[in-house]
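Per-record layout

source: Eutrema salsugineum
name: Sm domain-containing protein
length: 91
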Amino acid sequence: MSGSGEKISGTTKTPADFLKSIRGRPVVVKLNSGVDYRGILACLDGYMNIAMEQTEEYVNGQLKNKYGDAFIRGNNVLYISTVKRTLADGA
């Protein structure tokens, strides 16, 4: 197989396409330390450095802090996930 993208209805979607599509949406960023940050993805760069807004910090599933803006260095990021919408959110 060629390429690293997933084929969807005639177009190839790459990880870069995914990251572009989630800017401005709620995300969960999990760090290598196990800490989760939840908030709105403001921007990110090629090194996976992340800027978030309305950020909440969760340690072991418990809310620990709330931040207005947060900046996360890319080498600490384990993964970025979108927050699933519920019917209450209008999805």
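summary: Strands lie at 6-8, 11-13, 26-31, 36-44, 50-59, 62-72, 77-82. The chain has one domain: 12-83.
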